[in-house]
Structures are given as structure tokens and as C-alpha cells.
Amino acid sequence: MVIGALLALVCIGSGIAMFVAARSDTGKKIFAAVGQGVALAEKGVNAPGAEELRQAGCPQALVMDMKEAMKLAELFIDGGLKDTDDMNYLMAACTGKYGDTLPTCEALAPVYAKAVPSEREFVIEVKISGKQKPECRQRYAGDGTFIADMK
């Protein structure tokens, strides 16, 4: 009975704290960023080229426009970010878990370039979940020509 009452108080207190936080400027930014982040991830899983990357051996594949992704960061930076071409590329991420045999960046680049014909550069990143350093991260021209290793 006492535990139930304490749990109810914690729930009420948490609800009040969330309400207050959601009304603050910082809280509004955080909730907006979470909503936009979920939408961006959902869009990335269904983006052109993601299914082809999965068929090529990526257990999880996501394609993201990095200019769109940087708009999330702008929510927290007064005055926004400087618009540069540094982020004018698509990120095609291939993620697996420990023990998975993942394809290389070199193997995925032509798959993505064929699936999404474009003039825009793209980056292929192959990563094991939980590891900080990717297995590979390479930048390619829209036609799949290697540009640079980004490790």
C-alpha cells in the first residue's frame, strides 16, 4: 500500500516536471528535436537506396541527407549554423551487431550509386553497434567513384 502511494507520487511528480519542462524554451527545443529526429530516422530507413543496402548484406540500413540532419543541431545553436557545402552529402549507414559479417564500403558504394543515381556525393559508413569507431567510412562521388577515406 505504501509502495503504491509512493509510486503514485513519483508518477505525479514526473508528470508535473515533464509539463514544466515542455513549456520552457529548452524543453520545447528538446521535444522538437526528438520529434524531428524520429521523423528523420523513419525517413532514412525508407529512403531510396536503403532497401538495396539491406539486400547487399546490411542488417540495418539508413540513408540520411546530412543538411537535414544538421537542422536538428541548429535548434540548439543560437544564430544557427553557417551554411557550407561540407554537409552537402547523403550518409548511407550500414549497421550490424557483433558477430555479423558486414559488407565493406567498397562493396556498398556501387550498390548505392546504382540504386540512387545522383550528382550528389555520398558517404558510406559500416559500423558495428556498440563500437565507437566504424569499420569504414568513405566518401564517394554520385557515380560511386571513391573520393576519400573519412576515418
Descriptive overview:
This protein is an alpha+beta fold and 151 residues long. It has one domain. It is 46% helix and 19% strand. It has five helices and five strands; from the N terminus they run H-H-H-E-H-E-H-E-E-E. A five-stranded mixed β-sheet has the order 1-2-3-4-5. Strand 4 and strand 5 (146-149) form a beta hairpin. Helix 1 (2-23) packs across helix 2 (25-45) and helix 2 runs antiparallel to helix 4. The longest helix is centred in the first third of the chain and has 22 residues, at 2-23. The radius of gyration is 20 Å and the shape is globular. The model is unreliable at 4-11 (pLDDT under 50).
Please outline the helices and strands:
Layout: H1 2-23, H2 25-45, H3 50-55, E1 60-65, H4 66-74, E2 90-96, H5 105-115, E3 122-128, E4 136-140, E5 146-149
Parallel strand pairs: 2-3
Antiparallel strand pairs: 1-2, 3-4, 4-5
Helix pairs in contact: 1-2, 2-4
List keywords for this structure.
151 residues; five-stranded mixed β-sheet; 46% helix
Spans of at least 5 consecutive residues whose pLDDT stays below 50 are 4-11
State the shape: globular
Tell me the span between the first and last alpha carbons: 56 Å
Order of helices and strands: HHHEHEHEEE
Rg, Å, rounded? 20 Å
SSE-based structural type:
alpha+beta
Strand elements, count: 5
**Number of structural units classed as domains:** 1
Physical arrangement of strands within the biggest beta sheet = 1-2-3-4-5
* Largest β sheet strand count, sense and barrel closure: 5 strands, mixed
Determine the strand fraction and express it as a percent band: 15-25%
**pLDDT averaged over residues:** 78
Separate helix tally: 5
* Helical proportion, percent range: 40-55%
